[in-house]
Structures are given as C-alpha cells and as structure tokens.
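ingest -> validate -> predict -> emit
validate: passed (alphabet ok, no gaps, 313 aa)
predict: started
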Amino acid sequence: MAHSPTDRHLERAELERTIKDKRRAVLVVNTRSRSGARAYAEAKERLAAAGIELDAAYPIRHAERLPEIVREEIAKGRKLIIVGGGDGTISSVVDHFAYVDVVFGLLPLGTANSFARTLGIPLDLQGAIDVLATGKIAEIDLGKINNDYFANGSSIGMPSIIGRATPASLKKWLGPTAYGLVAAVAFARYKPFRCIVTIHGEERSFEALDVRIANGAYQGGVLVASEAVLHDGEIVVHILKGRSKWALAKDWARLALSAPFAPGDIEALQAPEVTIDTRPSLYVSVDGEVITQTPIHVSVARKALLLIVPASS
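emit:
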C-alpha cells in the first residue's frame, strides 16, 4: 500500500492526539518468550498504574496465534497495540502494522531485544512502560525481504544456522548462552560460500563467510552496523569476506569487544534495494527466525511503522 510522506505524517499526528487523550490500548504478550510468562501479569498492573486502560489483554502461549490476534484487533479499529516479546515476536506480527493507522507499542521480553536496543527503548519492564506512557510516535522504516516485512535485521550464514538449530526451550532457559552452545557445534562444520550482490543493476561477487542485512543497528543483541538507522530509506549490507572460518570467529570477537574490523575484511554496502544470491543456496534468518532461502530481494518500506519511542529520541 503506497503512502506519501505527508499522509503518513498526518496519520501519526492524529494518532498521537487520540492516544494521549484516550490512553487506551490492547496488550498482546508472547508468554513463551524468555521473560514473557512472568511479565504478563506485571505488565497489566504497571500499565494500569501508568494510566493506560486495556480494552483487551492476551497471554499467547502458542506463537502461531500472535499474527491472528493482532490482525483481529487491528480490524476492530484499535489505535494502540502493545506487543510483548522478542525480535521473533515482532517479526511475526509487523506485517500487519505496515501502513495502517495503528501504533505499535513495544515491551522487549525476548533474548536479544535488538529492535528495542536500536530504538533506545529500555529493556526493563518499567522503563519500557514509561516510554509507552510518556514517549512520542515515530515513523519508522521497515525492511522487506521478498514480500515479507522485517523490523530489524536479517542474516545469511552462521546466524541463520544457529537460529534454525536453537530450540525455543533452550533460549527460554539459557537466554543468549543458548546461541553460544549451538554455535560451537555448528562452527565445526561451517564452510564459506559465494555471495552475489546486485545493486542498481550492477552485479558483484564475493567469497563470503557471513552476510548481515541491517535495517537497525543491532543483531543478536550486539551492535553490528552503527551506520544503520531506521529513518534514512536505506538498507545496510555487510559482507564478511574470506575463505577461512577462523576469520568469522575473529569477526564475532571484534563485535563482542566493540573493536574495529581489519581493513578489507568487510564489504559495506548501502542502498534502497538490493538482490542477494548465494552458492549454494542458504537459509535466511529474519529478526532471529529463519523464514526463507536465497536468492532474496531486499528493499526499504519508508515510514511503514508507527511506533512509540522515548520522547528524547
């Protein structure tokens, strides 16, 4: 659905007035996310204390029901829907928020909470609710892979292998440590691949170890693309070049230590849209969940999401 920047700005202003005046919302929490089960009841109490009245509240045990509930509540004309969960939860419902006159409120209850980090939303429950009560509505770009919207980031290579192999139960009990355990096993069998990138009709090919596609700056809870912002109309692509998987281990270590990359290790590309293929075809992880395989077409959906962010942002 096409929206002009002026139309989206007017929608945002009208919704901001409505939400501040009425202070009503719907709460949808993925209770299978890392802290969702214990946070649901507490969130209801804290939202009430913040003066936000709930028209409906849903503790969702089965993640496949999340999109259905969100879609139904949007169809009822709700103006603010608060979603509690991790990056995978956001990714599963964000398509329904794209270019509609409803505001997304975020309670980060997941393992990595990369999207919340990018937006500057506090990771503690009370801090996030304070943002819902006192923040402002921002017009946020979404990424798009083929016909699916994504909020934060996508990856090809080890992150998608890890995401596909890490059980939800392990993430719930061990948090980020779960990814490390699965990564140690997957790393032993990992091989480099060829990555073919097409931008503005120009094709380039790389021997690659990892590909990160960033709408936001964080992936897996780690700052991976500081140049990626959610309102500039461009997607950032980082290609870790090389033939040795030990370069990938060094890459992860640099990210963990916030150390600079060696010159020539990373090919950094930035554009409104890009096509990416690999040899062999590989799985693609979007906001922590594996959804498709290469080849993919990546683009930006400008100002697609209306979302409450800190007033100081």
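Residues 6 and 303 are 11 Å apart (CA to CA).
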